[in-house]
Design a protein that fits this description.
The chain is α/β, with parallel strands linked by helices and 318 residues long. It is built from nine helices and twelve strands. It has two domains: 133 residues, Nucleotidyltransferase, domain 5 (2-Layer Sandwich); 165 residues, 2-Layer Sandwich (Nucleotidyltransferase, domain 5).
Length: 318
Amino acid sequence: MQNDIVAALDIGGTKIAGALVDGRGRILVRAQRATPSQEDGDTVMGAVQSVLGELSADSLWGDVRALGIGSAGPVDASKGTVSPVNVPGWRGFPLVERVRALTGGLPVTLIGDGAAITAAEHWQGAARGHDNALCMVVSTGVGGGLVLGGGLHAGPTGNAGHIGHISVDLDGDLCPCGGRGCVERIASGPNIARRALDDGWLPGPDGDASAAAVAVAARAGDPVARASFERAAQALAAGIAATATLVEIDIAVVGGGVAKAGEVLFTPLRKALDDYATLSFVQDLRVAPAVTGTDAGLIGAAAAVIAGAAASEAAVSG
């Protein structure tokens, strides 16, 4: 696969992105549509079809040998289905089957969006060279994935490492997943903003009440805004430390829109991690910002295809 081109899809609640990616991780062709997330399943699939149609119209499409999908979850890679929390029209939706039909039977690899950012950061980003890592996306939701023993560990259904739904507050708020006190319920962008507003933070004249606006206020010294980010950092630290204690990772990479807050998030995160990661074998755990940015889902979906092909070739030659 090293010299071949793979197609990649990155499916989220806001956008459906597609790309043609070469064996060195370079994006050669792009396509994107808004996700009609509140529409029925076939309408959402229509946006996927439109992205694939644009990609397949490119002259490079004839060189594509396989396709990878990184999707908001939960996903079930064993069944080829997706049930994104923020796309209610897709519940047990047979995405792999539908995409395969649209692409003339190309091999399709499905992973969750957390696993996709993990594959991207391990291949091209901050986790490169690390055999054991947790990579996270902190945005509208909180997802994650694991690298263990030098390779992506997606688990049987593709959801391993989904740190957003570890409970870090036993008496905390109910989460849409059905759990209580989940990392996502505290540390996601909408929940950072919600907490700041509930505690008395007031948006500026433009009325922007997003987590990005809270980050600007925190950077300017607003104590309520800072406290909301500190609470989010504490939740992330608790989840990261629990993961490190369980599987002995040595780096946690944090990406996504919330990570763009920079040191407003990372300074309290590193401080809180010192309080939670106390056992000797996790005390050297590092936290680093992701570097693959908004292309992480596409690069990761491609990486999963390429890694899978390489493993298959190794098994055959072995």
